[in-house]
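Working notes for the structural subgroup meeting. M.R. asked for a predicted model of this chain before we commit to crystallization trials. I am recording the input and output together here so anyone reviewing the notebook later can reproduce the run.

Input as submitted:
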Amino acid sequence: MHPSKLPIPSAKTNEPEPPATLHGSAQAVAELPEAAPARAEEKSQPSRGRAFATFRKWLAKGGLAVLDYGLMSGSNFLLGILLARWLSPREYGAYALSFSFFILAGFLYQSLLLEPLSVFSGTLFRENIRGYLKTTLWIHWALSFVMCLALAISAAVTYFIGHSPVLAIALAGMTIATPFILAHGLARRSFYLKLMPGPAALGSVFYCVLVTGGVFLLFRLQRLSSFSAFGLMGFAALVTSVIMVFQLNAALEPATGRPSLRATSKKHWEYGRWALGTCVVGWIPNYFYIPLVSSFLGMAAAGELRALMNLAAPVLQTYAALSMLFLPYAARVQNQSGRKAAASLNRRLACLFVAGSVAYWAVLIPLKQPLFHFLYNGKYMESAYLIPLFALETTIWSASLGPAILLRAMESPRSLFMANAAASVVAVLAGIPATRYFGLKGVICSMIAANFLYVVVAFMLFGRKLATRQAGANLEELYADKP
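Returned structure, recorded in C-alpha cell form:
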C-alpha cells in the first residue's frame, strides 16, 4: 500500500537555448527520438525511488508489527502448550473455559475502547493524540472495574453454587489479571496510532521473557496452576505497561487540549454500541463451543478442543497485528481517497490474509501427528486427525479480514454486527446438535459453516456501505463539556 501519490514535476534544463540555425534545427530533429526516452527515464527514476522507499517503510513497519504480536502470541502460545502438558486435562479444561470468557471480556474492551481509539485517532484526533489518550485512560479504568466485578461475581457463584472449585479458582486468577492485561493492550495500541510498532515490540520482548521464564519457575517450584498462570500474565503485563508508558510519553507530541470525557465517551459509545453487540455475536462462532463442549462432553474435552485451537494461534495473532497496523491507515484511505481506493484495499487485504493462512497450514498439516505428540507430550493424540478441518475453518475466516478492517475504518460496526449475528445463528442452531451427536468433528464442521456465512455477508455489506458516506463529526463538540 502506498500513500497518496504526488505529481512529479517535469524536468527542466537551465542551459541557454542554441541559436536557431538550419544545422541546429536539423540536429535537434535528428536527436529528438533519443531525447524523449531520456526525459521519460529521468522522470520515472524518482517515481520508482519513492515507490521503493514506501515499500521499504511499510515492510519495516509490518515486520515490527508481526514481531510484536509474534512475541505476544508466542509467549501466550507457549504458556498454553506448557499448561496442556503439565496440568491435568480437567484443570487445563478449566483454564481453557476461563480463557474463553477472558476473550469475551477482551472483545468488550476492544469494541468500546481500542477499536474507536484506532479509528478516531486517524480522523478526529490525529493532531492531538496525547490529549485523546489522556481522556481514554479514564474510560479504561471504568471498563476494567465493571469487568473485574462481573468476573469476581462469576467466580463466587461458580464456587458456592456451581460447586466447581477448579473453575472458580481459574476465574479468580483471571479477575486479578484482567485490568493489567487490558492496560497492556491499551499501551501497545497507542503506539500503532502513530504507526510506531517498534516500541510496542520492545515491550513485548519484556512480556515474553517474564511469561516464559515465570512459567518454568512456577513449574519447578510446583506452584503451576490455572490461577498462577493468569497471575503470571497479569504481572508480566503490568511490568511491560510501565515500560511502554515511559516510551509513549517521550514519543507523543504535546497535547493541544484535552477532549471532553463526556463527549469522547459519547462518541465511543456511538461507535461501540454496535461493536459491543458485534463482539458478543463474534464470540459465539469461535468460543461458544468451549463451554458447549464442557457441558456435553466434559471439562477434559474442552481442553482437547483448546489444544486444537492452540495451533491456529500464531497465524491468528499475526493477523491481529496486521489488522491493528492497517486499521488507522484504512481509516485515512477511505476518508481521503474515495471508494475506488477502499475497494482496492479490501481486495488486497483479503487476498493477503487468505494466502498467509494457506501457506501456514500447508507446512503444519503434513506434520500433524508428530507435532501433536511433541507439543502435548502424547496427550490429545486422538484429535490430531481434525487438524485439516480446522485449517479449512481458519482459512475461510481469514477472507473476512479485508471487509472487516474496512468496515471498522468506515465507522460501520453495525455491518459487522449483522455479519456476526448471521454466523452466530448458524453456530447455535447447527453447533448444539452437531456437538451433542458428533463430538469435536461436529464442532469444527459447524464452525466452518458459520464462518463461511460470515465471509459472504461481510463482503455484501461492505459493497453496500461504499455507496453511503457520512460527514465527519464537529471537532468543537469534542472539546467542550456540555450541560
